[in-house]
Amino acid sequence: MTDTAVPDVQTHCPYCALQCGMSLGGDGAGAPLRVTPREDVPANRGGLCQKGWTAAEVLTVPDRLTAPLMRASRDAPLETCTWDEALDRVVSEVTRLQGAYGPDAVAVFGGGGLTNEKAYQLGKFARIALRTSQIDYNGRFCMSSAAAASGRAFGMDRGLPGPVTDLGRADAILLAGGNVAETMPPFMRHLTDAQKAGGALIVVDPRRTATARQANLHLQPTPGTDLALANGLLHLAIQEGLLDEDYLAARTGGFEAVRTVVNGYWPDRVERLTGVPVPYMREAVRLLAGGERAYVLTARGAEQHARGTDMVTAFINLALALGLPGRPGSGYGCLTGQGNGQGGREHGQKADQLPGYRRIDDPAARAHVAAVWGVRPEELPGPGRSAYELLSALGTPAGPKAMLLFGSNPVVSAPRASAVEERLGALDFLAVADFVPSETARRADVVLPTAQWAEESGTMTNLEGRVLRRNRAVPPPRGVRTDLEVLAVLADRLHAPGTWSAEPAEVFEELREASAGGLADYSGITYARIEKEGGVFWPCPSEDHPGTPRPFLERFATPDGRARFTPVEHTGPAEDVDAEYPVYLTTGRVLAQYQSGAQTRRVRPLADAAPEPFVELHPDLAGRLGIADGDGVRVASRRGAATVRARLTDAIRRDTVFIPFHWAGEGRANLLTNPELDPMSRMPEFKVCAVRLEPVPAESSAPVDEGAIA
């Protein structure tokens, strides 16, 4: 709410990577800000989902933090303190612990919702203010497998291969593991545009989701078998003579090794492995190969696996064999999840990267970035631990003793969440920057109240690779600072080298310089250009460069300009079902909630629409277990147990159950999930593990949500 009138300010939604355009305005006198969808933004064209319409309510949630909190000791309660007291405590603990154990005694954990400026400054702060290698971010749980597979195949990872509006002209689209009708509803407009024009939508998902119900063809595989399915589809494409042989010869390398592997994925075998009928597979391949323009898209369902990089690679191999990537109106793409999931991984939050999508172990990259930062290359630390490995190392003899956390809530969002809680509790010191007392913030020694999306400016990079402007509509509440202010003040108190600005425009200018010459080159992008052009696509190496909406049209970002095939084999999930745990669990999102729920569970209309977690199971499975609709159910894996209510539906396989992961307390889905990591991307296996179910007596069946509205 605001006491003075607010003229309409053009900005973007704080939630998913579609970054829908909206305007914020208000009449003052304590009235809430008014959200108006923008027609001039191609991603949403005047549409918003329920989360977008209620986005302004996040700014005034009942437990909004407006003063720092600090506890005198681990057993003491969090109490209000001054900013000087909070910052002094952070600096003294960092100095003490690094003095005793070295720079890597302090870790940093970031988030995929931070603006480009904040993600950049956080990475810089870790490397030259703290001198630590121990930095990663929650985007490791989102995009890392697709990024690794795209880098391996194309030499570069950038979400979609063109503007999202290109999808509306496609003749066929295969979407593996995504439920965009719920996770980013305005995106569905582009898919339905294609269908209205005669195109086909093929959805791969173990559940008949809202997206699958709108598809022309739904392939419903056993969880963890997506790779076998993709190899089987490629086998059929070869068998039926549907390959683009000219494209293979001119623009790719390594196909013969893949051909040899997929020869073993004959249709009947793949049907046995996946449960997908052979006629459905044949129809999918014919639809994909039958038009001039086609896409293969993956999302978390195909990526969040201990073999996620290989699963995505199998779908990329299929797209390459059909000649799709690098052609206008066709290609392979990944649907980025978090609001700045694309930009957030480009500029230094990841353990192995420097700004511009540079590798931290590349001497040339280190020299370039060090020069921008005013330090020597040898002063920059090397690669650190990936997200789950970092969380697992906290408080161990060889691990960090302290953590500074910005824009994440791993107590809810990390796999095997109870173990993550234990590691946070083992730290000597935890500082969390957040706008509410999230489940992770409640475990901190210091909590720093920070500004929300409409209270600060910056840039975001959406799922297309389009850099957008987020404009401030209202000032933060009194007592609240931006993340950039916090980092700049801490850097000053730690006597860090270089310059440290709290102004987004100044930080972006430095980001431009640091990214110059990298894969994600922003050096030609300015705030003025973004405003004038409605966003600029990277790479954009100079101010007179038009930007790159469709990379790979002429060549791929590999040394020889060719895309690379990589043979991959199906091995199944890291943890398969057995007599003790006979049912597959998969996790995901629902329409009214977002990520760990720290924002959306506090917004009344969203909490009313989706008030609690649930387990979705087939009536046949429920009948065998004596579970009725609405019953409390204890779902147990080898890592823990969650108590949720049953929701019966025939839209899910009989051998599979589904729990959304937005809630805390006894209904946390991530108490169950498997932290087994992909060897290349370090992505945990969120999407499949083995569980057993049992009914819970009515008096003890209500799930507990620590962050729900009272």
Task: Provide an overview of this structure.
The protein is α/β, with parallel strands linked by helices. It has 23 helices and 30 strands. Strands 5-4-18-17-16-6-7 form a 7-stranded mixed sheet, covered by helices on one side. A 6-stranded mixed sheet has the order 24-26-25-30-23-27. Helix 15 runs antiparallel to helix 20. The two termini are 20 Å apart. The model has no long low-confidence stretch (mean pLDDT 95).
What attributes does this structure have?
alpha/beta; seven-stranded mixed beta sheet; six-stranded mixed beta sheet; 18% strand
Within the largest sheet, what's the order of strands?
A: 5-4-18-17-16-6-7
Share of residues in helices: 25-40%
Molecular shape = globular
Gyration radius, to the nearest Å? Answer: 24 Å
Poorly predicted regions: none
Please identify the oligomeric state: single chain
Largest sheet: 7 strands, mixed
Number of strands: 30
Number of helices: 23
Which structural category fits the helices and strands? alpha/beta
* Alpha carbon gap, first and last residue: 20 Å
Beta content comes to 15-25%
Round the mean pLDDT to the nearest integer and report it.
95
What's the gist of this structure?
By secondary structure, the chain is α/β, with parallel strands linked by helices. Helices cover 29% and strands 18% of the residues. α4 crosses α14.
Could you outline the blueprint of secondary structure elements for this entry?
Elements: E1 6-12, E2 21-26, E3 34-37, H1 50-53, E4 69-70, E5 79-80, H2 83-101, E6 106-110, H3 116-129, E7 135-137, H4 144-154, E8 172-176, H5 180-183, H6 188-196, E9 200-204, H7 210-213, E10 217-219, H8 226-239, H9 245-251, E11 252-253, H10 255-262, H11 267-274, H12 278-290, E12 294-298, H13 300-303, H14 308-321, E13 331-334, E14 353-354, E15 358-359, H15 363-373, H16 387-393, E16 402-406, H17 410-413, H18 417-426, E17 429-434, E18 446-449, E19 458-461, E20 466-470, H19 483-493, H20 504-515, H21 527-533, E21 536-537, E22 563-564, E23 583-588, H22 604-609, E24 614-617, H23 619-625, E25 632-636, E26 641-648, E27 656-660, E28 674-677, E29 684-685, E30 689-696
Helix pairs in contact: 3-19, 3-20, 4-14, 8-11, 8-12, 8-14, 15-20
